[in-house]
Fold this sequence. Notes:
Oligomer: single chain
Strand content: 5-15%
Helix content: 25-40%
CATH class of the domain at 9-211: Alpha Beta
Number of strands: 21
Amino acid sequence: MSWDPGPDSLDFELNPYGHSLVFSSRYYQLLGKRKDLPIYACKEQFMTAIEKSQVVLVEGKVGSGKTTQVPQWCVEFVHGHRYQSGIVGCAEPADLVTCAVAQRVTDEMDLVFGEEVGYCTALEDFSTQETILRFVNDSVLLREIAVDPLLERYGVIILDEVQRRTVATDLTMALLGDILSQRSDMRVVVVTTSIQAGNFQSYIGACEVVKVPGAGDSTTEIQHTQDVVHDGKCVEEAVKRVTDIHANDGDNGDILVFLADEKEVQEACRRLRDVDDLPAPLQIIPVFPSLSHNQLHGLYDVPDEEQEPTGQGLEEHPGNEDTPEEVVENDGNETEDSAHDGDEEDDDTISGERPRKVIVATDIADSCLVVDTVGFVVDSGRVRQEVFNARVRATQDLVSLISRLSADQRADLASLRPGKPGKCFRLYPEDFTEDLAAFPNPEIHRVNLTPWILLLKRLGVEDLLKFDFPDPPATEFLSGAMNQLKHLDAVDETGCLTDLGAIMSEFPVDPQLARTIIASCEYGCCEDILTIAALLTVPPVFLRPPEAAQAADDVRRRKFARAGSDHLALINVYHAFRQNYQDELWCSSNYLNFDALRMTDDIRQYFGAILERLELGPCEDSEPKTEEERVKNIKRALAEGYFMQVAHDLDGTGNYFIVKETQVVQLHPTTCLDSNPGWVLYHEFVLSERNYITTLTEIEPQWLFDIAPKYFDPTNLPQGEARRRFHSILVKSELAVPGKPAREWAGPGVAQPAAPRNFHSQAGRGPVQHGQMRERKEEDDDDSKLCVVS
DNA sequence: GTTCCCTGA
């Protein structure tokens, strides 16, 4: 380790953690601000608590400084113990926040971003062996448990924003209980805006509790509308409210607007830019989760070169800063990873009068991103969330009302300016607040659990009913997930992980897709399936801007459509993108998402590296000889994973039946299919105005018997058309045993599950070894063994 | 004749 053990107090003049031993003036400048944070008064209490207790629960309102200060205190703790138990890991619920907080904390500690303090998200690992404080995305931490079951590199784990109740945080909290019992030297710090949001105290049991007193010197005045504002009117109403505030409320605090989703945010920003009779210019800043952290332009004031005139010794922090009036809790300080690539931001600066900011955000800004120059909040009270319908196994994106906790947090954000009161305008009537749920609904209650359950199985959880979930999901969710995993042969009849399931769990994708990737080795179409898998994993590649919808449709169908398969169309897009030198302009003129396509290669190579590591690869003898055979093999490989997601044409009118669910669905209009094939496999079933299945490939029903004979045994199917059809297919196929009545076809010896396949994997070579996950860069260079597709 | 993606890398 490259730092010297030093004094335990950060107030000492030498930096105990960094290479350069003397603190910069910037450090003191930030320290002054840190001392004003409400949480600063709790430091001693916290340090005593963590010495004494394995688990510390910290509760504090938004803006109290929890997210930036607690990790630093934990570093002091592990430093004091000479890192004997490990370093500090801090789990955050979103990538945007993970990186932003890491940058801010690096700055406050006067260290080097990516060295002593680093971060790790799905896409990036910006940390080293020397890192002592590592911010990680919560699902990345959960996956780390698979390779490091006792999380031995960490002496302290911080779970931040626990009240958001992401699946990954919930599961990690449950698993940590077990880890702590085996590691008496480890500490866990649970950080939340509200202990009540999950009965955390009774869930955790014995622990020390640190409650941060409220800031208290200013409160938010809240106004409600008289009437309900309907979904379609929210954007308009919010824009009107912003222009009103700007025209009439002179104290010039910034304005923070909460809308339901990215689409509304973009729409509101567009309208605000179009308003032409403003008394003074506004700086419009959209914020939503899929922004990359270097797109948070202007959220925090960034003087860049123009530092406060104090600046000596700031070389280590090019571009990192913020103004004195800003405290950032989780904040992203602005910018772009200066440390990554030195990208310069030429934002407006706050020299003199800066324009008033209007930050238009989704719920990601409820608690994770704090801007303390805000004086006005406009809250639509809504959020768009994915809701999984376990009965029909379909996702639905619904706009729902936020919880009272979120509503209160949003209001609190209006009064973080020292000594100045704030105002919150809620776009809903006052009596609505009584109908709001008190706390956010845990995500584990509303998403498809199949991938998460596979991960738990991989982590050695035997009995899910006995697993200590903070809030157990409905048994319907658990059994639905287990059934899917059984059909996929990922777990056996007794619920134990199979060898195939262990292999599937290596892939950071849905189990169906993992199964398809593995199957592609047998069908000699790895390269094509890896391309499809990568494209199904990145954000949608086809764009459809409202003003050019027709043109986008035309291009998609003319240039990329391929008979009978949207999946094959994706392959066409990928190759066309490469043939056109991965050109951004080419993408926009073809209505393709450049950012998504640019990510595809990395992900594709990563999946390929997993196959290699597992010693799974294309079988030479299964290489397709003809184009026709190649297409057929791709489709069959898809069917190996997605056989539970097939639908058949009911009557030639475009109404399709989902085989097992007796649901009638339509093919989504964006499909490239130009006719209505008899049988299709789909990637997703979305419930919206109508029931649609999307990303489709035509298949032959006979394949389904080969792949999953038991699943498609007619006697297991509901009464109806699908059953009749399978019956007749079966009669024609050689599987039919003459003279036996149909209902016995599923009997022993006739339609057994497919024999376990040889996955070319060496027995006993299962789990990933620690560290392999990040070694891919080297591996990738010699994957020449995988064939290249024309 | 029109869903949005919190996340895995």
